Amino acid sequence: MTEHPRELRYTIEHEWVRVEDDGTATIGVTFFAQDQLGDVVYVVLPAVGSTVQKDSKMGEIESVKSVSDLFVPVSGEVIETNQDVIDHPERVNEDPHGAGWMVRVRMSDPSEVDGLLTNEQYDSAIAT
Amino acid sequence: MVPFAGWDMPVQYQGVIAEVKAVRGDAGIFDVSHMGRLSIHGAGAASFMDSLVTFSVMTLATGRARYGFMLSDNGGILDDVILYHTQFEDGSDMLRLVCNAGNRDAVKAWMAQQSQAFRGVTVIDHTADTVLVAVQGPRALDIVDGLCPDEPKPSALRPFGAAPFPLTVGDGAVAEGFIGRTGYTGEDGVEIAMEAAYGGRLWEALAAAGATPCGLGARDVLRLEAGLRLHGSDMDLTTTPLEASLERFVNMDKGIFHGRDALELQDEDGLRRKLVGFRMLGGGVPRHGCDVLYEGETIGEITSGTYSPILDTGIAMGYVSAEHTAPGQRVHIDLRGRLVEAEVAELPFYRRPKSQ
Questions:
Q1: Predicted complex ipTM exceeds 0.95
Q2: Residue from B4, B9, B16, B340 to probe the interface with A (highest A Cβ count within 10 Å)
Q3: Do B32 and B170 fall into the same domain?
Q4: H/E segment holding residue A128
Q5: For a tag on chain B, would you pick the N or C end, based on fewer CB atoms within 10 A?
Q6: Tens digits of residue pLDDT in B165-211
Q7: Alpha-carbon gap: A98 to the closest alpha carbon of chain B (Å)
C-alpha cells in the first residue's frame, strides 16, 4: 500500500510533479511530507512569471512544529500559483496530491522529469 | 516520539491543531509524568522552602498551591515551580513541589545544598514512582468528577486548590489521585498525581470518558496562547522574574529568600530588557532565536513562538530593550532572512471566557 500515486514523479526532498496534458508540470509536496510536518500553517511560493532552476529553493512550507524549504524539481517558468493553498494552508494536509498543489511550471527541459523518482523508488527512499 | 530531558515524549497524537481545539472547546489529557515531583518533610520544611522560593510558604494554607520561582543568589531563575501544601488525617503536613523535568537534578542539588542549614528536613523524589496527568479544558472537571466515587468531587477545589481524591480507574480499581486545580494551557482543569502502577489505567479511563490525548506540540501552542513562560526558552539562570515580566509572582514583603537582594538591586537600577508578547502582522511563524528589529536595529530576540489557531497568526514571546515594550509598538521579526512586521502585544494572547 502506498499513499503516493503511480502517475506522479517524486524527489528525495518530498516534492511531487505531475505532467499535465498541455505539457506543464504541477508541483506539490507529498503525503509523506505533510504527514511528517503536521498541520501546515503557512506557505511561501515564488512569483508568477519567475524563472526557476531545478533543485533551487522556490519557497517555504511552515507547520506548527517546523519550517522547511521547498525545492523546485524541474526548471522553467512559474505560470500559476495556488492562491487557495496560500489562503488555506491546511489544504496541503487535506489533499496533498490534489487541492494542495502549489505551483505550475512551463518546463524548459521536459526530459528532467525522467530523472525524478517513481512512486516505488520514493517509497523505498522514505522507508530507510 | 521525541527525546525530552531524558524522557520519550509524544509530540502529537492526532495533530497539533485538532488537539489544541479539543482543549479549548472540550477536554484534553497530557501525560506530564516527566515533570519533577518532590516532597519536603520535617519540622523545618516550610521555613526551608520559604527561603528558596519567591512566594510565601509560611502563609500557604493547607489544601492550597502557589506558583513562583526558585532563584539563584544572582536573581537568575533556576526553575519555576508549583508548591502544594497538604495535610494528612493524622495532622502531619507535607509540601509537594512540581518542577521542570530538565531542572530536576539542579533543583535537587540546590535543595540538598541549602537544606544543611535547616535541621530535620528531608526531600524525597517521587518522579519515577508516580505519574502526572493534566486534564484541561471546559469539560475537564466534569470528566474527573465522573471518576470520583465519593463526595466532595474534585470540582469543589478552587483554582490553585489541591487535595487527594479517590478515582475509579478501569476494571473497578480505585486509586488515590492527588489533584490540583492547576495547569499550563490557559483553560480550567486539574493535574492528577497517582501511583505509577495505576497510570495507564487512569489515562485509559480519562480517554474513555471522552478526553482527547494531547502531545507536547499542543501543549506548547496552548501555553504560548495563554502567555505562560517556558523555562529553558523564555527564562533561565540569566534572566530574572522582573525581566520575564513575572514580578507578580515575587513577594518582596515576605522576608529573606535566595535572590531577593539581587532583585532589589535590579529594581533600583531599572531594567534594560523585558519580556513582551508579539503578534505577527505578516505571514510566517516566529521561532526561538529570531531577531527583533526596530528601524533596522536589532533590539531583541524571540525566545519562543508558534502559530496560534485562535488568532490565526504567528505569536511569540521575547526580550527587547526596555524602551520598546509598549503594546502596539511596531517591530520587524527576522524570519530566516525575511523581515516581517509584528507588534508588541499584551499577554496573554488568549484568556478563557468566564464561566457563567
A1: no
A2: B16
A3: yes
A4: none
A5: C
A6: 999 998 789 999 999 999 999 999 999 999 999 999 999 999 999 99
A7: 21
Judge if B295 and B214 occupy the same domain. no
Q: CA dist B215 to A39, B121, B248, B298, Å?
A: 14, 36, 29, 34
Can you give the residue range of the structural domain that contains B117? 2-222
Clarify whether residues B308 and B215 are in a common domain.
no
The number of CA neighbours under 13 Å toward the Cβ of A2 is 17
Instruction: Kindly calculate the radius of gyration of chain A based on its CA atoms and give it in whole angstroms.
Output: 13
Q: Do B287 and A64 touch (CB under 8 A)?
A: no
The alpha carbon of residue A88 is apart from the nearest alpha carbon of chain B, in Å, by 11
CATH of the domain at B329: 2.40.30.110
B/e letters for A63-96, b = 16+ CB within 10 Å, e = fewer, are: bbbebbebbbbbbbebeebbeebeeebebbbeeb
Amino acid letter at B7? W
Q: Is B206 in the same domain as B284?
A: no
Structural domain contains residue A5: no
The count of domains in chain A is 1
Question: What CA–CA distance (Å, rounded) separates A20 from A54?
Answer: 18
**Cell numbers standing for residue B353:** 471566557
Which CATH number covers residue B105?
Answer: 3.30.1360.120
Shortest Cα distance, chain A CAs vs residue B158, angstroms: 33
pLDDT computed for residue A1 by the predictor = 62
Q: Number of residue pairs across A and B with CB atoms under 8 Å?
A: 39
B80 falls in which pLDDT band (50, 70, 90)?
A: very high
B9 pLDDT band, cuts 50/70/90, is confident
Cα nearest neighbour of B307 on chain A: A64
A98 touches chain B (CB under 8 A): no
Count CB-CB contacts under 10 A for residue B321: 16
Per-residue pLDDT of B86-106, as tens digits, reads 977 777 788 999 999 999 999
The pTM of the full predicted model, rounded to 2 decimals, is 0.92
Render pLDDT for B228-243 as a digit per residue (tens, 0 to 9): 999 999 999 999 999 9
Mean of the per-residue pLDDT values of chain B: 95
Reported confidence tier of residue B8, pLDDT bands at 50, 70, 90? confident
Are B185 and B294 in the same domain?
Answer: no
Of all residues in chain A, the one with the smallest CA distance to B308 is: A64
Work out the minimum CA distance from B336 to partner chain A, whole angstroms. 10
